[in-house]
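Input record, target 12 of the design panel.
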């Protein structure tokens, strides 16, 4: 069994936490707060949450949007890591047995939506330095946490929230405060259990892999699944009564991705062709300036190209004969 951070009691769930790393010294009050959050975590993970937790928000035109205070946790896909999140939840490093890589001690780094926003808009504006499936063809995955009263006790302790600016006894658990323009950085104390995961965004490469999609569906049976542009792959809050809807939705999304890849590749091919054409013309002009008409004609002939009529007219009878053009 694993000791509480404070006191001599032990966790009831001996298998959940395998060992806590203490990478920053805590005051007694801070240790008690983290202990309280751990108890909430363990209590909430046993709850059967209502549909609000897994609600997919759509406007009248079925465009997907995130509501204010929605949390996003993005990572590069790994089969092992996704399985771990499915079984243990999204946890701060210290509660998984290793030190924090940054200075948000005992917290999980999320992105928080500051106002209602469409997924399509977010995909264009999201910063590219973060692992999220919002920047084209990739194998990233993001987990979505809807704010709701049932898990409010866990979500309340976002140590980067302005409400803690005057509470240094809480704020000082972490060492820095950082904001973004479109989204707010969030440092959630301890983390959230897997049953709090409302939905999942899959990067395009993952959507094209049927095996990965099936794995995600199996590991997170209550969560909705969408693409980085807001295409619905699976909706668990408002089931659409259509036979094999999930399969049809996935196939439609895959076809759209393939079409976008085809358009992108052909666009890039056109750019490359134009570059090659320009380079060839530059080469021809250089040849014209640096060699005789006869040598120019011979170069065309050596490359299997038709000698231009204007160049051919400038050759002597002897040169035409040498090139076997007479």
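The sequence produced for target 12 reads:
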């Amino acid at each position: 069994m694993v000791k509480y951070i404070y006191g001599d009691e032990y966790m009831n769930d001996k298998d959940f936490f395998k060992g806590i790393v203490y990478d920053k010294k805590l005051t007694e009050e801070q240790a008690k707060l983290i202990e309280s959050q751990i108890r909430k975590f363990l209590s909430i993970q046993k709850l059967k949450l209502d549909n609000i937790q897994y609600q997919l928000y759509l406007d009248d035109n079925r465009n997907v949007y995130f509501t204010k205070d929605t949390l996003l946790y993005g990572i590069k896909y790994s089969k092992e890591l996704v399985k771990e999140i499915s079984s243990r939840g999204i946890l701060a490093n210290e509660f998984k047995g290793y030190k924090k890589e940054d200075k948000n001690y005992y917290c999980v780094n999320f992105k928080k939506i500051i106002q209602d926003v469409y997924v399509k808009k977010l995909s264009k504006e999201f910063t590219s330095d973060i692992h999220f499936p919002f920047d084209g063809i990739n194998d990233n995955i993001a987990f979505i946490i809807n704010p709701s009263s049932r898990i409010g006790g866990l979500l309340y302790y976002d140590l980067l929230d302005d409400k803690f600016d005057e509470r240094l006894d809480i704020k000082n658990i972490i060492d820095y405060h950082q904001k973004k323009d479109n989204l707010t950085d969030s440092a959630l104390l301890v983390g959230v259990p897997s049953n709090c995961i409302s939905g999942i965004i899959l990067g395009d490469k993952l959507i094209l892999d049927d095996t990965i999609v099936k794995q995600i569906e199996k590991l997170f049976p209550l969560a909705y699944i969408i693409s980085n542009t807001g295409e619905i792959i699976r909706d668990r809050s408002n089931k659409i009564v259509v036979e094999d809807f999930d399969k049809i939705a996935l196939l439609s999304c895959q076809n759209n991705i393939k079409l976008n890849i085809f358009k992108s590749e052909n666009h890039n091919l056109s750019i490359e062709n134009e570059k090659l054409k320009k380079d060839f013309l530059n080469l021809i002009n250089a040849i014209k300036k640096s060699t005789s008409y006869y040598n120019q004609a011979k170069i065309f002939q050596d490359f299997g190209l038709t000698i231009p009529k204007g160049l051919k007219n400038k050759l002597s009878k002897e040169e035409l004969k040498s090139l076997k053009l007479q």
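The radius of gyration is 30 Å.
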